[in-house]
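Suppose you are handed a protein chain with no further information: no name, no annotation, nothing but its sequence. What can you learn? This example shows the usual starting point.
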Amino acid sequence: MSAGARGWLAAPAMAVLGAGLLIGGCAQGPLNSASDGVGCSVTVQIPSSSQGALGTVQATFGGHQQQLTRNTSTIPVGCGQQVRLTAAATRPDSNPFVGWQVGGQSQTGTSVTVVADGIISATPQFFVPVRPSPTPTPKATPTPTAAPTTVTLDQWLSYDSATKTATLKLIAGYQGVNHGLSYDGLSDGKLDVTVPVGWNVVVDFSNAATINHSAVVVTASGTSPVFPGAGSPQPTVGLAPGGSVSFSFVAATAGSYRIACLVPGHEGLGMWATFGVTAAGLPTIHL
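A reasonable first move is to predict its three-dimensional structure. Written in structure tokens, the prediction is:
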């Protein structure tokens, strides 16, 4: 079917189809961590429209079943374990299920089996009709508009592939997790964001804690931004409670970094997130 007949919503995927191929390179743990290295997990990214998620996914693994309804859901599993994913459309009449995208490959069945041997991502796709162009009138000719290119992965991360811009919402002390020493309700690197090299990154940073906090992209042992502009002002002083600020930068060099609070003592108490710059692909987020 041509692009004029239907549209697609999809997110980036790195995984395996069926049970015949494996992607290697994981350690023993189920997820990334500073002590255990890269572990194994399956992340399901369900696209959405203005009316909400286009579908749901039932994950079956290890004798258990889990219903996935969020835009992004990460399932920690043992390395080499199979996960059966079955998609169902929320609105089958207007947005029926089309197929799966896993590891750059397509599969049309509603179910796909993924073998977890690394950090795996799978995306169900749903048909989205293209809006008809307005009918010209004798007095005016409508100007065609470009289709929207913004993809929302979760409440925390969205991106525009046309402008190569990723926007990250970062809240310090969200819901008081880790005594306020956290970002978006996660600490110790459990919030994991990646962007492709050369992309623009906009960080909307706010402080919901009762003490000052900052946010700076650094190396694991660094104390200054790795990219020009990659941090909130006065990072060792921090943003006052209730304050907000936006900063932006270009992710110029591929590598593994952190988003850390540089107010003395805070990073050591777990106030840091994982930030990676990949050689290719699209932005991702793992929670």
